[in-house]
Amino acid sequence: GSSSIVYGFWIYDRCDAGPPLGGPAFLLCSPWAFSLGPAMNHGSCLCGDIAWTVDGEFTMLVNCHCSICRKVHGSGYGAFVASSAEGFRWVSGVESIHTYQSSENGQRPFCPRCGSGVAVVMEKLAYMPAGNLSGDITRSLDSHIFVAHKACWFDVFDDAPQFDEFPPNYPGIPVDSEARSPATEDAVGGSCSCGTVQYEFDGPADRMVHCHCEDCRKSRSAPFSTNVFVSRDRFRWIAGTENAVHFEDSTSIHLPVSFCCVCSSPLPVHLDGSSYVILPAGAIDQDPGIRPQAHIRVASKASWDEITDDLPQFDGDQID
Questions:
Q1: Mind giving me the DSSP string for 101-164?
Q2: Which of 77, 231, 236, 308 could potentially form a cystine with 157 if both were Cys, beta carbons 3.0 to 4.6 Å apart?
Q3: In whole angstroms, what is the distance from residue 29 CA to residue 143 CA?
């Protein structure tokens, strides 16, 4: 089967919603007490070209499961925080930010060198992907939104409120796109958010893991990355490889990064000497025929990221 592409949210210029009721849609549009005390935090893209600081408490932490968030982050969901714009400061790179117009009302800013999502600042609010922050987030998860459109391979186990789409009474309108089918019948297809880059593999996939290292958090702008491993001889590029940007800093990251230059969605990579292609699970358009098997690099996970499932956990890469 094919999956629908459903847009959750990124930013809206203005709206008339009331006070926050457990979801970012309300918080994006509502002025209320932003700072509960000093709590400096630092954020940046993977390559470090774009950086910022946040002074003050976060007023929102929400997970969005819409298919655009999944594709742009390459993971099961995107996690976002908000803070007062008064406490937000750009440190470097703001002039280099690229923006992807994901819908009529949605924009996604990113670094053109490494593909990481970055912050956006509105009149009273600064809004950013949580995975790009280096410090702690003391706020508990407010909610999951667009759960009706979550990945078939991801289950929600925590107790945070869940909304099938926007929280109640929010005036936002979801944007539906046509389902994407693989080029080859019975294959499993994958694509970036804008649809320029397409690929497929003969399923099922060989392995699926959640990686919690800092590199994955910053490159995917998510709490963790979810990667699918497929034998190289069963993987095929279909279109758009000329739009792939490759970033690799051998002094720091352990996995090369490839992303679409138009929409910043992460793309499959092949490691030299490996018989596998590593695919971003969130970008896969059909059921990959496998479910997550483990959490790896848990020793370096974000302090605020709580693992609530019962999958095996490993401090490093090795899965027993």
A1: E-SSS-EEEE-TTT--B--EE-SSEEEEEGGGB-S---SPP-EEE-GGG--TT----S-S-B-S
A2: 308
A3: 16
Q: Rounded distance, CA 284 to CA 81, Å?
A: 25
Helix (H/G/I), strand (E/B), else coil: 60: strand
H or E segment to which residue 71 belongs: helix 67-73
pLDDT in tens, 170-226: 766 666 666 789 999 999 999 999 999 999 999 999 999 999 999 999 999 999 999
Residue in the structure block whose two tokens are 């930013």: 11
What six digits make up the tokens of 146?
Answer: 């667009």
Neighbours of 164 (CB within 10 A): 12
| Vertex 167: Cα angle to 165 and 169 (nearest 5) | 115
Q: Which residues pair with 124 in a beta bridge?
A: none
| CA dihedral sign, ordered 128, 129, 135, 139 | positive
What is the enclosing helix (H) or strand (E) of 84? strand 78-84
How open is the CA angle 10-145-206, to the nearest 5 degrees? 95
The DSSP 8-state label assigned to residue 295 in this structure reads E
pLDDT digits (tens, 9 = 90+) for 29-45: 333 233 334 468 999 99
Helix (H, G, I), strand (E, B) or coil at 283: helix
Rounded CA separation 132/247 (Å): 17
d(CA 114, CA 94): 14
Residue with tokens 């060198």, as numbered in its chain: 113
Of 172, 169, 282, 177, the residue nearest 224 (C-alpha):
282
Which among 174, 159, 176, 224 is positioned nearest to 22, based on CA atoms? Answer: 159
DSSP code for 24: H
The identity of residue 97, as a single letter, is I
Residues 215, 46: Cα–Cα separation, whole Å: 7
